[in-house]
Amino acid sequence: MDFKLSEEQIAFQKSVEKFARNEIAPLTTEAERESRFSFEAWKKMADFGMMGLPFPEKYGGSEAGVLTTCLGMEAMGRAGVDAGSTMAWGASTILCGVPIWLLGNEEQREQYLPKMITGEWIGGMGLTEPNAGSDAAGMQTTAVKKGDKYIMNGSKMFITNGPIGHHFVVMAVTDKDAGHFGMSAFIVDADFPGFSVSKELDKMGNRASVTSELIFEDCEIPEKNLLGQPGMGFIGVGKTILEWERSCLIAAGVGGLQFLLNDNVQYSKERHQFGKPIAHFQAMKHKLADMRVAVSATRLLLYRVAWMKDNNQSAMMEASMNKLMCSEMGMRVCEESVQLHGGYGYMKEYACERAFRDAKLGTIGAGTSEVQRMIIAKMLLNLKKGGKK
Amino acid sequence: MDFNLNKEQLDLQKKLKELIASEIAPKAGDTDKAGVFPAGNWKKLAEAGYMAITLPKEGATDWITGVMAVEELATGCPSTALCAGASAWICGGAIAAYGSDAAKAKWLPKLASGEAVGAYAITDPQGSHLSDITLEAAKTSSGYELSGSKSFVTNASKADVIVVIAKTEGEPAVFIVEKEAGGYEVGEAIQTLGMKGAPCANITFNKCPVSEDNKLLGDGGEIASKLLLLARLHTAALSVGIGRAAFEEGKNYAETRRSGGKPIGAYQEVAFKISDMYVENDIGRQLSYYAAYMLMQGDPEADTEVSIAKLYASETAGRNANRALQIFGGKGYTLDAAVERIYRDARYVEIADGSSEVQRMKIANAALGEDL
User: Fold this and answer.
1) Is B308 on the interface with A (CB under 8 A)?
2) Residue A30, CB half-sphere, CA atoms under 13 Å: how many?
3) pLDDT band at B73 (very low <50, low <70, confident <90, very high)
4) What are phi and psi of A134, to 5 degrees?
5) Do residues A140 and A132 make contact, with C-beta atoms less than 8 angstroms apart?
6) Sign of CA pseudo-dihedral B315, B320, B326, B330
7) How far is it, in rounded angstroms, from Cα B354 to Cα B230?
8) 3-state DSSP: chain A helix, strand, coil percent, rounded to 5?
9) Which of B196, B128, B124, B123 has its CA nearest to residue B347?
10) Which one of A245, A318, A336, A353 is the catalytic residue?
11) Looking at residue A66, what is its pLDDT?
């Protein structure tokens, strides 16, 4: 066992944190207040190399690996960048870029990855539908082969980067009798005939990212935009990105807990009540202690998934644990942060107000806490053990 | 970075699992009911080399291996793990770190082989804080004489050697008290809620003679802190074992007990408890390994990480014991059920070696820094 990060990783993390604090957080904090996406911040992140972290150098990336990618995003969170901005990064880089890289053919990679890495093109992913989230068997979007095209009909719900995406990795049913093996993945460009997006969805948090529904009305997709093998969309994409998603998309949130802890430490020293800093009261101190516990616990969960993935070990269980606990511990830290700040914490001016709204998505998105518990329990329990009686 | 145990550690883990599953765990209920020092288990573990794990003949202690071993033993029998921990891990650990050459040569081989039983005495009748310590060590021509008393000393009546925190001329100092030198009396075994197989007792010292060689070397306050640090890390690993035992009991019952035509594990209320038990206990385990690693690195954050591990793992053990008992329902409330014992044993770890409240104080103070 060895929990040491390399010198390069530590230096990289520090440089990202400094960059994000000076260059990104001011822009995205303002964008969040105005509920808009900051293209300026996006371009700066791309110029710094954030969009290319996982990808091979031949496309303009830096082949950083899962752990180092996580460290970079953790640093963004530590610098106080909001969850919406880092989620926009995740939806493009991880949910859209990684499947194109790992499942796509060379032509698709060359076509899409370089411009995603420079920040010129923003990507997204469409799996969830108005009537089907984690229950993928309920998927209703279909794609029917017609000549050298697929004709797609249906819609995708809650799609991060929907209004601004250049292209999306979209899952659709191509063989309704084949269950999970009847779904295929496509790269759908926003300018394909029959593609449109709904008006922007108005969200509780993550407001520096933009979200909409994707609508497919006889949307024409060239056959060459099929991603991976027909029928392997759900299984292939799921297997390819699961550990990436449940580590890299959570990393910024883990860094955010460190940011909040620092913020609470400072506030509790400065804020005086009953003649002394509130940090002198045990009820406040012990909130700080629980936040500090969450910082260590979530970092270990995160790094483990990333390390396992980098070492080609299956980390299904660890990935679900990471998703479940980072989001739930995160929600608790945010709640206690607002509580420690009292009335000020309820005001938009304070970082914990935004963090509180942002954190709630953690326990809902990418499989709710309940779904994670279902997955974990299913892996643990052998319900056939007792036999039928 | 590497999250895996190495081959040597995995081999030792396998060996311990086999021994504990066949010889020790099946008697955990009897060990609890007997309420006396588990001499039979002690002998088997000593022969298997368990006591020597944290007392290597040369080189630094691998606390990660120690955490692994304690979890295994505590999963099978927490009381036995507590007895062994008080001896080799804490008493032995203090002597190894701060003992004179003479004291090390005399006691470490015997503690490592299990031939001698060790104990540690921190708590005064007034409390565990250094300012509460009233046990007086008076300087004599040949060493010291200890007068006063200590409370809740695990292994007290069995111990051949006890590490004792006292004060000499108002300053904390730590001493090795030897049974053969006499000068102290062990009270009746104290009846406890759990951990009954690891009886504790109060000790009264009456001009108890301690040679100069048996004063631990260094600043007394620092040694006392280190002793508590080791005890906390041990309790973290002990907690992970108890939390796992609760998980394993609950899981087995959820799989085999049927109600409404299906195993109760098919109900989400039960399945989600199983999930939470596993997940939280695994976090406690990772935190414990990480704390052990930080300790081995000599990292200044080690103290805080040990407190974090102890706090989280012990509270998880408590939650898991409660969840497991709930899954068992009425059956878990009976004295025949292992979960009933686990529930009582789990209550120990949230109190011992610095209660949860004390850990939160320490963690918060570290986060706040010195400029508060």
Assistant:
1) yes
2) 8
3) very high
4) -70, -20
5) yes
6) negative
7) 12
8) 60, 15, 25
9) B196
10) A245
11) 97
Residue of B nearest to A267 (CA): B368
Strand extents, DSSP E, B136-243: 136-139, 143-154, 161-168, 171-178, 184-186, 200-211
CA B323 to chain centre: 23
| B266 near A CB under 8 A | yes
Task: Supply the ipTM of this predicted assembly.
Answer: 0.95
Q: Is A352 helix (H, G, I), strand (E, B) or coil?
A: helix
Residue of A381, A382, A388 to mutate for B, most B C-beta atoms under 10 A = A381
**Bridge partners, B45 (sequence order):** none
Q: What CA–CA distance (Å, rounded) separates A289 from A267? A: 15
From the list A4, A293, A386, the residue facing B263 with the nearest CB is: A386
Contact between B287 and B313 under an 8 Å Cβ cutoff? The reply is: yes
> Residue A135's pLDDT is what?
79
**Eight-state DSSP code of residue A2:** B
Q: How far apart are CA B243 and CA B237, in angstroms?
A: 10
Of all residues in chain B, the one with the smallest CA distance to A269 is: B372
Token pair recorded at residue A342: 């009292």
Q: Are B210 and B175 in contact (CB under 8 A)?
A: yes
Among candidate residues A302, A297, A292, A300, the one with its CA nearest the CA of residue A261:
A292
Cα A248 to Cα A45, A140, A165, A303, A356, distances in angstroms: 16, 29, 20, 10, 20
Q: Is the dihedral of CA A292, A294, A299, A301 positive or negative?
A: positive
pTM over 0.90: yes
A371 burial (CB, 10 Å; 0-12 / 13-18 / 19+) is middle
Q: Where are the alpha helices (DSSP H) in B167-267?
A: 220-256
Start-to-end C-alpha separation, chain B: 35
**Dihedrals phi, psi of B54, to nearest 5 degrees:** -100, 10
Note whether B293 contacts A385, CB cutoff 8 Å. no
DSSP state of A133: S
| A122-143 tens-digit pLDDT | 999 999 999 987 777 789 999 9
Contacts 24+ apart (CB under 8 A), A238-244: A240/A98, A240/A99, A240/A102, A240/A103, A241/A94, A241/A95, A241/A98, A241/A99, A242/A316, A242/A319, A243/A66, A243/A305, A243/A308, A243/A309, A243/A315, A243/A316, A243/A319, A244/A54, A244/A66, A244/A94, A244/A98, A244/A309
> Do A383 and B371 count as a contact with CB atoms less than 8 A apart?
no
- Token readout for B209 is 């003679």
Amino acid B173 reads A
Instruction: State whether A308 and B3 contact (CB < 8 Å).
Output: yes
CA A170 to chain centre: 16
Segment A317-350, tens digit of pLDDT: 999 999 999 999 999 999 999 999 999 999 999 9
